[in-house]
Design goal:
Elements (H helix, E strand, L loop, with lengths): L4 H27 L5 H15 L5 H12 L5 H20 L4 H4 L13 E4 L1 H9 L4 E5 L7 H8 L4 E5 L5 H14 L2 E4 L4 H10 L3 E5 L9 E4 L2 E4 L3 H9 L3 E9 L3 E6 L12 H22 L32
Parallel strand pairs: 1-9, 2-5, 2-8, 3-4, 3-5
Antiparallel strand pairs: 6-7, 8-9
Helix pairs in contact: 1-8, 2-4, 3-4, 10-11
């Protein structure tokens, strides 16, 4: 069946836009070889915090902030929103610098640098105990640094990741990640089976678990009902292995803190596997809420985290359709 001229035009336009986007990203990565990190990160943060609050995702972010922090005034929440956009802009432009950002020297942890590590002993315990392990994380600061931290500590880890839709951009990102991280597993139908294989072989898996998952158990986040992916809890219980949390924090002066928590306590099985997984998933969610409350501008507020009936907040008054304050 012949394609209509409108469909052909759309397909050609999509290919051209994809090619242009790929060329732009490739040029940016080349420029990053000569442009200092501090300048590029500053520019990315400024652009994002200037334009971001006027974009449609800020409508979601403002609703999320209003329900998470009802005790804060509008000015405080707007400051968090600008900080979240600043973080997202910096994270986006930090991809080509990932390998160069890591300057932590485990032999001399007292030396000042761009990276500091808290809980290094937990990285080493996971590396050396000969057991599988699960690490959960959240979209905080530059979360990509967590996989870099594991690799630099010699920790064998497989990380779930979602590829960009643009094939050219996906190839570039895959190459950067592959040079600085452990094994990367796409989040497709085979991803779960691949993670099971890693754990059966005594390896370690890392996953981001702070976003909505429609088939997850019902829990609470900032006092509101949410559904969360139970994979981390399911794997930790099934393999009876250590379960750790890991996060990145942005510090003043373009620095980062990478933190690994002690292993979470896993309650004894009750005989109800679904309830046990829900309980442990809630414990994980509670840890993430503590992290977000501590430094809220580091988190990805633009995501629709609260989608359960009774959990989603109405769009605050005084916000237009673009998400900008009127």
């Amino acid at each position: 069946m012949a394609l209509s001229w409108r469909l052909r035009l759309k397909l050609h336009a999509a290919r051209w836009l994809g090619a242009i986007g790929g060329a732009f990203v490739a040029a940016f990565f080349l420029a990053a070889r000569v442009v200092p990190y501090a300048w590029m990160a500053g520019a990315g943060g400024w652009i994002a915090r200037t334009l971001g609050p006027r974009l449609k995702p800020s409508r979601t972010a403002r609703a999320n902030l209003a329900q998470a922090f009802p005790e804060k005034g509008e000015a405080e929440r707007e400051a968090i929103l600008r900080g979240a956009w600043d973080n997202l802009g910096r994270t986006a432009v930090e991809y080509p610098y990932l390998g160069r950002l890591w300057d932590y020297d485990p032999a001399h942890p007292e030396r000042p640098g761009r990276i500091e590590v808290v809980g290094r002993e937990h990285f080493m315990a996971l590396r050396d105990d000969g057991r599988p392990g699960v690490i959960f994380a959240a979209h905080l600061a530059n979360w990509e640094l967590l996989a870099v931290a594991a690799a630099r500590h010699g920790l064998d880890i497989a990380v779930l990741y979602r590829e960009p839709n643009n094939p050219a951009i996906a190839r570039i990102i895959r190459r950067i990640r592959g040079q600085n991280m452990g094994r990367l597993i796409p989040t497709d139908l085979r991803g779960g089976l691949a993670l099971v294989g890693v754990l059966k072989g005594g390896g370690h898996v890392g996953m981001l678990v702070d976003q909505h998952f429609s088939r997850g158990p019902l829990g609470r986040f900032f006092g509101r009902p949410v559904r969360t992916a139970p994979a981390a809890a399911k794997f930790a219980r099934a393999f009876e292995c250590p379960l750790h949390g890991a996060r990145v924090m942005r510090l003043p002066g373009g620095r980062f803190r990478v933190e690994m928590t002690p292993p979470l306590a896993i309650p004894p099985a009750t005989g109800d596997a679904a309830a046990d997984e829900a309980t442990l998933t809630q414990a994980i969610t509670d840890v993430i809420e503590t992290w977000v409350r501590e430094q809220p501008e580091d988190w990805l507020w633009m995501h629709r985290r609260w989608r359960v009936e009774g959990g989603a907040a109405p769009i605050p008054s005084g916000v237009d359709k673009r998400g900008a304050a009127r």
